[in-house]
Specification:
With 222 residues, this protein is of the alpha/beta class. Helices cover 27% and strands 27% of the residues. The strands form two sheets. The chain has a seven-stranded mixed β-sheet. A hairpin with a 2-residue loop joins strand 1 and strand 2.
Length: 222
Amino acid sequence: MAAPPQVDSFAAPRCRMVTEQLRARGIADEHVLAAMGRVPRHEFVDPSCHPQAYDDWPLPIGEGQTISQPYIVALMLETVRLSPGDTVLEIGTGSGYQAALLAELAARVFTVERVPALAARAERTLRQMGYHNVEVCVGDGSLGLPEHAPYQAIVVSAAAPQVPRPLFDQLAEGGRMVIPVGGPVLQELHLVRKTRGEISTTVCEGCRFVPLIGAHAFHPQH
């Protein structure tokens, strides 16, 4: 577990984020709330966005991508119900913020980002902050990382038109996946479980994510 910097001028707004945006809106998992109270979101955005780092909305991180709003991140983490010994696959590294939270809650995290510049920046930030149980990979997230499967949990931070079959195949028996499913603009957050090799799905709530681009997701625009 990594510790925030000793001098933390953002401790108060981070505490307000947890109290007013997360707990007040129904996030009840104390492990998730504690992790979000520890991980400094401002370290994962451009300094120009520091004043907005703990507000409940997405922020740009470059390359046409965003860091998700804190509430939806907390909802996904609560929904997937991680255990301390889990190996987790994250699809869509982005800034690395959610990977840091996953590293606080699970034993090992593999995260895939298709944009090399974002992957390099996220890996640098995670290393600087002491998260050594995270491995950042560049590739097609819809294919997963079969070489490290099976995963007890998969968290997909980009929207797919359906659950990519390779990701479901890489879930361990009894594993959980949280993924936005729908069109390129509006989606629903799905909790997918693998039980005796079969898929079961629970729809959580509406959401809005950038599209997952890949062989088993949306195709790139030319």
